[in-house]
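Exercise 7. Predict the structure of Protein-L-isoaspartate O-methyltransferase from Leptothrix discophora.
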Amino acid sequence: MSEAGTPRRKRFPLSLDDTRPVTRRLVGSHANLPASTSPTAAKPSPALPQVPAALPAAGHGLDSASFRSRMVDRVRLDGCQDADVLRVMGEVPRHLFVDPALVSQAYEDTSLPIGLGQTISKPSVVARMLALLRARPGGPSLGRVLEIGTGCGYQAALLCGLARNVYSIERLKGLHDKARENLAPIRPANLRLIFGDGRVGHGPNAPYDGIISAAGGLDVPQAWRDQLAPGGRLVAPVQSAPGSAQQVLIVVDRMPDGRWVEQRHETVRFVPLESGTRDHRPA
Ligand code: SAH
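Solution. The predicted structure, encoded as tokens:
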């Protein structure tokens, strides 16, 4: 079922006092590092988050608001015209989601390693996918959204400013735990983190107005199509042709009248959509 009505403007009320130092988080900044795990449950917290005006980062004295606004300018120049996407990108502190050693690159238009061989996409690509998601047949107001591949939690935080409820699923326990830790200072009340295999979607909260994947498979799993609401849209990287190493962005719309419409867009490069879950600890 699609959600009608005006989107509520989400804010990120976070005071600087609530913010832990950037150095406290991420284990392993580079590909294929094992991450420690902590078996705590993902619970939404009561308050909506707010971005601090400035945040000291690992001794860099980073003025995060001005870095973010320059990042937003670049994303706009890159072609993003969705004011709400630009707004949330100006609000969410991307540097909270990257390894302290990479914090100086947090606002560059570059993808960065987040541990366990995974990467956070570059801001212009994140913006492109979010804008595509909002351009769904049912209109830009998003009710429930499912994100496949929580990773470090950055895109999930952005989605929380664009949708009423966000469900984000991650197959690597180390990253699922890390995302929860990264998101703690922001405390999005409308986010639920799920540890599991996103190839089967997430049935309990279906249908979704939007499904967005940060990992690319050979094709779009049938479960994602099944869990899309009428008027809903799915955006994902997918293999461009059988046997090809290339990926393209695919958009699948479930039209309100029941028809299905698919569009293929530009070439992209995302991590693979893998099967099953992994809960490994460092050796
Ligand atoms: N949106 C993320 C991007 C993370 S990269 C961010 O902002 O950081 C893509 C993520 O997809 C990786 O963390 C990877 O582990 C995850 N992934 C790959 N296959 C998956 C699957 N079947 N189910 C859930 N997550 C998966």
